[in-house]
Amino acid sequence: MQKKETIALEAVSKTYSQGAVAVHALGSISFKVHEGERVSIIGPSGCGKSTLLHILGLLDVPTGGKLFLDGTDVSTLDEQQLAHFRGRKIGFIFQSFFLIPTMDALSNVALPMMFYDVPEHARLHKAQLMLERLGMGDRLHHLPSELSGGQRQRVAIARALVNDPSVLLADEPTGNLDSRSGEEVLKIFDELSREGKTIIIVTHDPNIAKMSPRIIRLKDGNIESDEKKR
Amino acid sequence: MVDHKELFSYSLGNMMRRKMRSWLTVLGIVIGIAAIVTLISVAQGLTNSINDQLKAFGTNAVVVVPGDISQQLSISGGAARPPSTGRLFKNDVDRIKRVSGTEYVSSALSTRASVDFKDKQATMGINGVEPSIFQTANKALEIEQGRFLADTDRHTAVIGNTIAYSTFGTDKVQVGSVLVIGSENTKFRVVGVLKKSGSSGGNGDSALYVPIEDARELAGSSISKNEVSGIRFLVKDGFDVKEVVDNVNYELLSAHHVREEDKDFSFLTSEFLQQQVGTITALLTLFLGGVAGISLIVGGVGIANTMFMSVLERTREIGILKAIGADSRAIQEAFLIESGMIGLFGGIVGVSIGFLFSLIAGALGVPTAVGIELVLFAIFFSFTIGIISGYVPAVRASRLPAIEALRYE
């Protein structure tokens, strides 16, 4: 049975103009990610992986080519629809967590639901369940500054999952963590993967990349290799 | 759709995060609003006190004065003689009496004369009146000591409160005191002292009333035989003031053989005076409000400044919000709520402080009045200032590209 295409890129390119010089951040990228797949995108710094991540996350628009998310050509969406897609279909996990410092863990996790019609009690309930699932049930009302790095990343993962997105986009998720916390976070990804979540991890660390069954290597803005483990 | 309650607590949380700056920004608005409330309350208090005095004049009282005052207004009315030509005579009094709807028609004659009491002298306006005026003067004239003038009185005087207690320094003028008035050194016996009325004009606390025929003697040759300087009458209950005034007008025009355009007399009604004074007090209110408004504009600039700083500081946060699904409108609203709250809060505190100031001013004798309209206007106005000041920073925040915001350190 053919699985649903969550993401499809068709000759996606990105060119920045820096003054008079045009910088080709992405040459021509094409690949597909099916539902439930776990993909690592790896490459040295400056290879264009951040640009690709931003395009995949609908934070940036490609200069050429097309991006389909759950079958929708995202170039047809207006600003508001894009924001809606970001909130509903994409769960971001950042290297430096990017939690709102003034909000406790629970509010941070409930935040993505604020932009949709979810009643407040349902929102908080869902956020609490998600935090409990990630072993943060006893830290609901702690501010990010009162949490360790690993705990912050768990809160960030809970926030990314709370709207049940089609794809999780993780940008160096263990980059700011000690090795033990990093392993724990990767274990969470394993678990999510087993549950059928589509996950894309962007990293420069081969040890992390190889934990995914599929590895896309980027070099100078183009795909160098796209390997699947058996 | 964004949940506004949540957005609200998010914005409030941001304000609390940088308390000191928020408070200073609020302070800018507080000062502006407090100044507006205080100054306008003073202007309003002044207006009210003038209107009260006009009410004492009587809403159904009409004064006819010689000359056309529509071009040259003299607020003091019958006491001052308008410079334009025209005269009123005793037979005009009789004509007015014949118009239906008029009652208590009485004439007055004003002049100036020197007044001696013991070894002190003062020159003041003398109001020659018919005693019936005291029955119709409402609360403007109330006796404190003694009595009003009577029909049979000659060479008697009723004096205003100021004349009794301060005009002649330490020498208090009392009932029974004798004033020497005019170049003929006529002796006048004081029969009454009026209560303090609060107004200081020729008809107020500095007024000196004598029987009209005595005033005619004092005026001497400066006034024609049978001339009067003003006629006062009341409009009977059930009659329309305007209609009766029109009828009197018609009667006097034909008696004076003049057309409306070259009319040589004028009417003063409380409505007319209120209009004239209203124009002046409205200007005063506008002026004081404008002065205070400038400080409010400065406060608004303060809000804009704070909001720009806030957008700059929270660039990363705006990026995060966008990454997790906030659209531009939600971001814009969050910032507008914040600046609106600063304005609203500043307004509420400012109104409270302004109210306190106006109470203090009131206790110090300055008439003040804080109406509910002023309170609501001030709060609404400061809220609006907050929104307007926050608008540009909010739009700037909402337009920040998400990736640049996320990259921002």
Strand order of the largest sheet of chain B: 3-4-9-6-8-7
- Beta strand % of chain A: 25-35%
Count of individual domains of chain B: 2
What does the largest sheet of chain B look like? 6 strands, mixed, barrel
What is the correct CATH architecture of chain A?
3-Layer(aba) Sandwich
SSE succession of chain A: EEEHEEHEHHHEHEHEE
SSE pattern of chain B, N- to C-terminal: HHEEHEEHEEHEEEHEEHEHHHHH
Q: Which residues of chain B form runs of ≥5 with pLDDT under 50? A: 73-83
Number of strands of chain A: 10
Radius of gyration of chain A: 18 Å
Low-pLDDT sequence parts of chain A: none
**What is the CA-atom radius of gyration of chain B, in angstroms?**
32 Å
Which two chains form the greatest contact, residue counts included?
A-B, 29 and 28 residues
Shape of chain A: globular
For the report, how would you describe the main beta sheet of chain A? 6 strands, mixed
- Multimerization status: heterodimer
Number of domains of chain A: 1
Mean pLDDT of chain B: 84
Biggest sheet, spatial arrangement of strands of chain A: 6-7-8-3-9-10
